[in-house]
Amino acid sequence: MGQRIGPGRVRDGQRAGERGGSAGTPGRKRSDESRRAILAAAMELVGEVGFGGLTIEGIAARSGTGKQTVYRWWPSKADVLLEALAAQADLHIPIPDEGSYAADVHGFLTATFALGRDERVARVLRVLMAQAQIDAAFGERFRAEFLRRRRDALAVIVDRARERGDLPASPPPDLIPDIVFGVIWYRVLAAYRPLADGLPDGLIATLTGVPFPA
């Protein structure tokens, strides 16, 4: 996706920095500098102490902000990590427009797998998926704000290919994200196998019927 980390995630027509509800005061704009510091602190700390040792107090101390500031903007430490992860994806994974379906998917997958090879990111993926299984409310947020967001990004590429007329008949469009993200989640969660450099090329061949570059 081409978005920068600054705007954060978009939900319900608002920028993440302006959202209200349980995660913040309606209409209140968060300090972008403080937000960045908190998200960076959460990513650093979870790598050092694990999710069990991660606390809002620790995040606040590391980021140089107040504990109440963190609580005002996020309902839990898992939600801090969720926004940090979504921001990383927004920053590092573009939605390319290279003129062909194969080239666009290759660019998207290359960036996606490169980010997933960061062990810190992989660790957060495992933590959040686990938390989503035991906390139904967080699970809904995780699906809406990360999983669906990733699928929607890939859908832009698929829809553009359909409009251009270079989308293959097989596999069916609704199966494409299952194939792509199924491979990623299986390797990250179940097999603990690396997201190898050549894996995007193998997926391109699967999705397009021809090796990349075409």
Brief description of this entry?
The chain has 214 residues and is mostly helical.
Q: Which regions have little confidence, pLDDT < 50, spanning 5+ residues?
A: 1-28
Kindly estimate the percentage of residues that lie in beta strands according to DSSP: under 5%
Query: Can you tell me the CATH topology of the largest domain?
Result: Tetracycline Repressor, domain 2
Global geometry: elongated
Helix content: 55-70%
Series of H and E elements: EEHHHHHHHHH
Give the strand tally: 2
Order the strands across the largest sheet as they lie in space.
1-2
Please indicate the count of domains. Answer: 2
Going by CATH, the architecture of the largest domain would be Orthogonal Bundle
- Assigned CATH superfamily of the largest domain: Tetracycline Repressor, domain 2
CATH class of the largest domain: Mainly Alpha
Give your account of this protein's structure.
- The structure is a single chain.
- This protein is mainly α and 214 residues long.
- It is built from nine helices and two strands.
- It has a two-stranded antiparallel sheet with strand order 1-2.
- The longest helix is centred in the C-terminal third of the chain and has 29 residues, at 136-164.
- The relative contact order is 0.12.
- Mean pLDDT is 83; it is low at 1-28.
Secondary structure topology:
Elements: E1 10-11, E2 14-15, H1 32-53, H2 56-63, H3 67-73, H4 77-92, H5 101-116, H6 119-134, H7 136-164, H8 176-191, H9 199-208
Antiparallel strand pairs: 1-2
Helix pairs in contact: 1-2, 1-4, 1-6, 2-3, 4-6, 4-7, 5-7, 5-9, 6-7
